[in-house]
Design a protein that fits this description.
The chain is mostly helical. It contains 2 helices and no strands. Helix 1 runs antiparallel to helix 2.
């Protein structure tokens, strides 16, 4: 049960990152989706979604590896 919850915690930011990439691609090709008034706002929204999703997944993996002492010495807890 805990593994399913952990998987869901990782899937939701992953979907947000993928949606961010899609929004940036659509803004680049001139496709505007309804919640965004213009291309610039859509590009910034996509970039934010991508960065937040990527940072969350990276932080989750870093925290897990840090608990298991699988990181370099400079990143270990003192």
């Amino acid at each position: 049960m805990i593994r399913i919850i952990a998987l869901l915690i990782l899937v939701i930011p992953g979907i947000a990152g993928v949606l961010g990439i899609k929004l940036m691609r659509d803004a680049l090709f001139g496709i505007i989706h309804p919640p965004f008034p213009n291309f610039i706002v859509e590009m910034i929204g996509g970039l934010l979604l991508f960065i937040l999703g990527f940072a969350f997944i990276g932080g989750f993996i870093f925290h897990r590896d840090r608990k298991r002492n699988k990181v370099q010495k400079r990143f270990r807890n003192k």
